[in-house]
Amino acid sequence: xxxEALLLSLKVTAVATVAIVVVxxxxxxxxARTRFFGKSVVETLIMIPLVxxxxxxxxxxxxxxxxxxxxxxxxSLEVVFTWHAAAFASFVVGLPLMVQAGKAAIAGVDPTLENxxxxxxxxxxxxxxxxxxxxxxxxxxxxxxLGGARALGEFGATLxxxxxxxxxxxxxxxxxxxxxxxxxxxxxxxxxxxxxxxxFFSLWAVRxxxxx
Amino acid sequence: MTPRLRLDIEKxxxxxxxxxxxxxxxxxxxxxxxxxxxxxTTLQAISxxxxxxxxxxxxxxxxxxxxxxxxxxxxxxxxxxxxxxVFQGYALFPHLTALENVAFPxxxxxGRGKPEAAGLLESMRLQHLVHRFPREMSGGQxxxxxxxxxxxxxxxILLLDEPFSAVDxxxxxxxxxxxxxxxxxxxxxxxxxxxxxxxxxxxGHRLAVVQDGRVQQIGRVDEVLRRPRDLHAAEVVGVxxxxxxxxxxxxxxxLLLDWDGLLxxxxxxxxxxxxxxxxxxxxxxxxxLYPDRRVGExxxxxxxxxxxxxxxxxxTVASLRVDLANGHEIEVRFxxxxxxxxxIRTGGSLDLCLRRESIVLLTGPDAVVxxxxx
Lengths: 212, 374
Description:
The complex is a heterodimer.
Chain A: H1 2-33, H2 39-47, H3 54-65, H4 70-75, H5 83-107, H6 111-119, H7 124-135, H8 137-152, H9 156-162, H10 172-181, H11 185-211
Helix pairs in contact in A: 1-5, 1-8, 3-9, 5-8, 5-9, 6-7, 8-11, 10-11
Chain B: E1 5-12, E2 17-24, E3 28-32, H1 39-47, E4 54-59, E5 62-67, E6 74-75, E7 83-86, H2 98-103, H3 113-123, H4 139-152, E8 157-161, H5 169-186, E9 189-194, H6 197-203, E10 206-211, E11 214-220, H7 221-226, H8 231-236, E12 242-250, E13 255-259, E14 262-266, E15 276-280, E16 286-289, E17 303-313, E18 317-324, E19 329-335, E20 349-354, E21 360-361
Helix pairs in contact in B: 3-4
């Protein structure tokens, strides 16, 4: 049971983190380098999962992913109570951290360097991957680690959209809750230590990235 | 000089309007003027980093930009213009070594980029720092790496924005020599922005005085400095000896001017007798005379005695302010130590000659227009 939860958590977190990095970087780039009408509203909406109660985020996700929602109606995708829903919930709560860090890191890159690359024949993707991203790499890495760690620890919204089905959607945080309910303190203690260790390592890594 | 780059562009900002017309051949044209005059904006428009509101930019028959009437619009992206740009502060990529910086535009030439970049660095005597990062190089070294990088893509046009501002004097002179040689060897169209008169002299074939978003005057560097077209241009080139005098005589042989009691001869120029005109003489063209020596024919006229009120030396150039008998002050400039035997000191008396040939009237566009060709 513990091994299953651990593997599931890793799978959910891996998928969510890849999505967080890709979408978060794109949004960070847009937020750092463009100005458009309603930008502050869009930014606030991206950030709002950070402060909303997990049940509220979970409820929105149920509306979006559940029966009657666009995913089911338009694409016939039934993801509720599968690990896909867990990954999606993790993505939504981890994304704001990546956008924030990515935006700050990209905004810190001198636009003159990007212009220099343009005059040297670089296309816009070339400018991003050869100049902007390498120079913003510390902030981008820090954002990915923080976003990934947040995804790994996701509990409330996941419980609402994916449930806590052992072997199918029961990730580590959910198993801890379940174990405590069953007074299985051996399992709870072990998993709490693992989670604490992972969280500590993530934050330590982010600090190291910031220092060097 | 055959024009190769032609531009006529307009760009409006809240408090500033740029309207620049230029024709540049295979030469070094210096854009000279105060900050905020529109020099950098002009370079950005040529390179494609900024789109003008209207106008046209054309190079060797290829249209870089055109926007005249609604609907018609050409705006070639920067990467397709083949314009080398040496940015102010150089904009070297801090995460890449000198070699990787220079090889940056050569990536498409598979396998040949690095060797070609190494060859370019070697030709600029930079082979010893190929593996250094920009932060490990001096200002002059960074400048040459930036130049090598801009040339790596074999551009037809080279733009330089304040290229000499961060390097010391000996390095500066060397860079200016290098740049003139490169321009001649490669037949480049070069535009160089500076607000330093010495740099303009050191590197430019022609000089365009830019102020308030417009080209006020364009011509050979020495012509523009010797004969600013009007007060505007004179102010921009940073002259101090502008005064007003009354035209007493005007003939084909020359002018006689009355500067509040001091009579000066000047070469023939367009002026009406009885008119008060702005007059200008470069501080370098006021000659200091040895009282006990015979003077040549050219220095016989326009002689005047004054009192030194200020003596300022920079290490290479001495600058004096001399109080003349007519109550005005004049600035005199010469290479330091030139007049060492005279022991010039503040409060002392000094014999001067305001060279006749150097006395210029600043009477606007239809006065002395210098030839516009190199």
